[in-house]
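sry for the spam today, last one i promise. struct tokens for design, 382 residues
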């Protein structure tokens, strides 16, 4: 049998982007079959896998792992570094997938021995990184009992966390990760000769005013207790020194942890973009791209997680954390049933820090694999 570390390193060598996780899905299915676990593959566009392990009459729950990698050139120099140029497991989903395979092995043994107290569904989903693979798994029926196993009553997921020490788990009740929306803006004026600005309508000056005014939205319009982020991350316009361009293109993101803050951000920004552009004689179009919803930990699922993991680890090792402005498609599960998402410490003992998520030098810590398994088993057996 392949060791879990071998599996993790094999997945790390062969990273696949969202909805392209064909090989990864095959590894998952091979390992589930070897463990004697029933599963259905081919979900969520082809690579999603749903496994079911029968157990006693406790309430059915689900555990989730994401499988996709990122378009990053790996710079770890590890012997098991990516063999696919420009693809990398820089978010540790190789670790998450391996942990859930390890959980499947343990639960299969308990199920066969008649000691598993509840049925468990394992969700191996594609495309967490921007592709909303969780939503497609849900649309296929991964929690409602229509594919394999019974309908699920609660779901738990984890993410490797470089800022936390190895051996520490952390979570919080309520919102833990943000809604992350994107926007694109086109500000259109009238181009012409830079020596005759009075005959033009300058979209660059208008864009500058829009960007300046947008800084007031978070500080003046959003409830300071709720907070939020509005970042303009890209600006493109013009070609050379003596031409006023016809239009300017902007791109950016908003992040928020409360739906009311989201409404204030969106409405405030819509008004500023159209109003400020108009004040400068320009027309503006804004396109919003809905991101993942707010990842919300149901208080009862969080309380359960906190109790059972503190018993399995220790009170000191199971901590509360503040919310983070990143987004997660685990949020979609939490819209359907009570859910709890938690952070699994990765930072090696004796180190102050390690490369962060999405960094070309990041590597999931192998020593966190048994700890992730232990946390999931505590949840199942609690
Ligand atoms: Ni991730």
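last one done:
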């Amino acid at each position: 049998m392949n060791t879990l570390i071998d599996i993790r390193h094999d997945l790390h060598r062969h990273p696949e982007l969202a909805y392209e996780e064909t090989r990864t899905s095959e590894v998952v299915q091979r390992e589930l079959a070897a463990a004697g676990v029933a599963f259905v593959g081919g979900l969520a566009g082809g690579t999603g896998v749903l496994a079911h392990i029968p157990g006693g009459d406790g309430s059915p729950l689900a555990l989730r792992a994401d499988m996709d990698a990122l378009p990053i050139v790996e710079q770890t120099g590890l012997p098991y570094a990516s063999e696919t140029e420009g693809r990398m497991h820089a978010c540790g989903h190789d670790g998450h997938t391996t942990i859930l395979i390890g959980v499947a092995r343990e639960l299969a043994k308990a199920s066969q021995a008649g000691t598993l107290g509840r049925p468990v569904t394992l969700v191996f989903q594609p495309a967490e990184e921007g592709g909303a693979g969780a939503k497609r798994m849900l649309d296929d029926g991964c929690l409602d009992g229509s594919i394999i196993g019974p309908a699920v009553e609660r779901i738990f997921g984890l993410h490797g966390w470089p800022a936390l020490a190895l051996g520490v788990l952390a979570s919080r009740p309520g919102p833990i990760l943000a809604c992350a929306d994107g926007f694109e803006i086109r500000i259109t004026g009238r181009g012409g000769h830079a020596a005759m600005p009075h005959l033009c309508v300058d979209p660059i000056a208008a864009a500058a005013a829009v960007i300046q005014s947008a800084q007031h939205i978070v500080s003046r319009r959003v409830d300071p207790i709720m907070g939020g982020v509005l970042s303009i991350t890209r600006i493109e316009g013009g070609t050379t020194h003596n031409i006023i361009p016809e239009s300017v293109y902007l791109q950016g993101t908003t992040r928020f942890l409360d739906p009311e803050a989201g409404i204030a951000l969106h409405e405030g920004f819509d008004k500023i973009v159209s109003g400020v552009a108009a004040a400068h004689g320009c027309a503006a179009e804004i396109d919003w791209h809905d991101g993942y919803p707010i990842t919300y930990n149901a208080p009862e699922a969080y309380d359960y997680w906190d109790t059972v993991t503190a018993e399995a680890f220790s009170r000191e090792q199971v901590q509360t954390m503040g919310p983070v402005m990143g987004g997660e498609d685990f949020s979609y599960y939490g819209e359907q049933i009570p859910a709890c998402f938690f952070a699994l410490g990765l930072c090696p003992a004796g180190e102050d820090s390690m490369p962060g998520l999405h960094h070309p030098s990041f590597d999931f810590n192998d020593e966190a694999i048994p700890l992730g398994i232990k946390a999931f088993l505590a949840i199942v057996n609690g």
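The chain has two domains: 4-177+294-381, 179-289. ok im logging off now
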